[in-house]
């Protein structure tokens, strides 16, 4: 099974656990709607790639970890889209959850997906409870307060933003979770994998800023220019398009250099390079803009 | 240290973990605001009482469990109060979180408290990782979909409500979590404690319906008559006040009869009787109404 199919199957299994038995049908439908069809599934792909590079000796724990991380990511998208945040009508090319199902169900969908993520991990322990616990510790740290994506979103309500804490929490946190959880799922230490996650997160943030500045709503599958609209800090407004492109390239080189020594080091470097190509706007797009 | 001080201290320690380091100040303040000063802390009191009845051989795990359960309960209150649900301006005699801090911060406060609950449990494992994992499994099951309080709230968006699933999930779930987690924290099996939790949950629901029908907003510390207003099923509208009083008394007798054999069985029965007295509207109130 290819990586992408493996991850989609893991996410589907996790969602099915949240919908078993006599559950309220609309909320049940909204859970599935919020997570499928998937976007690029970048975070679980990184997680699984790191686990594979480290030997992946307990594939069922790796799958639970990748699904739980994707559930939390999808939950954050559902809540970020709410009227009181981005008020986004569209996500991944279809109506956002609160538009398709209602605002109460969107709040509950986010809540349920977060909780389901921890349920999935708690049930995947098998004969290695320490691994499952370490995964729960990392996922909760990188999701909540004071270090995770909730904190990142929380910074947007402050008069004075700590920019470095903001970016690390808002975008970096779940990429750090991805690399750390990949290592933990395969029985390795989390810490040596922190820098790779942090750098991929930075690259992703800069690439997102570039896309937000260069593409329109149709190409993005979500409203464009949201950062400018909401006054959020943005690499393109700070460095310009060329400066941001240079920064992206530097960050990705640093990411590859940071990969810890492991059996699958070479393939992992190749995966990061592949993402780098995908993340970087093509010469064609840049010409069209000029 | 008395039970109530022990529980408040555990909750304060848990919240402090969510506010350490460079965190966004307003969200950080909202986490504390949402959980203090506490209400009756009924769920953690039941949890800790069951743990004590079972020997409480790892008090730090019991405290983590009781704090995590209270965090999830407080999170549910914050989200239930949101404009898209009950639109409640007041909670526990002070402005609700979205009124005091803003709607975005209320959404994030609920999210952060849920995540913090699992973080607290993951860090309390000590030398018994299986206990921490079992606690996480129970708390996530009784919080999320398809069995937990999220499902309970989700039923309110259905055209056809499965009443028994609705009540079990909406109110019963966290009481079942309380008794099961108390037993697990002390190294005992969860299952024999399910009925006690379910019956206390039923009693609490009926008592809440009675209070909602008999008291005004000032005495409740929250808007009265919410069930009638939102068309939610209610024991008083179905059975009348006298019928609901009789039902409450029957449920509490059943709760006491269901207590599994354990070293602290007698004290636990006494605690349930004490709650029964507190939950039951006094003759004075009933006379005043007549």
Automatic annotation (TrEMBL), chains A, B:
Query: What are the required cofactors?
Result: Mg(2+)
Transmembrane found in the keyword field: no
Enumerate the UniProt keywords alphabetically: Isoprene biosynthesis, Magnesium, Metal-binding, Transferase
Record's CDD domains? Trans_IPPS_HT (cd00685)
| Coiled coil regions, renumbered to chain | none
What top-level branch of life does the organism fall under? Bacteria
Similarity comment text for this entry: Belongs to the FPP/GGPP synthase family.
Q: What is this protein called?
A: Polyprenyl synthetase family protein
Q: What is the protein's species of origin?
A: Thalassococcus arenae
Print the organism lineage: Bacteria, Pseudomonadati, Pseudomonadota, Alphaproteobacteria, Rhodobacterales
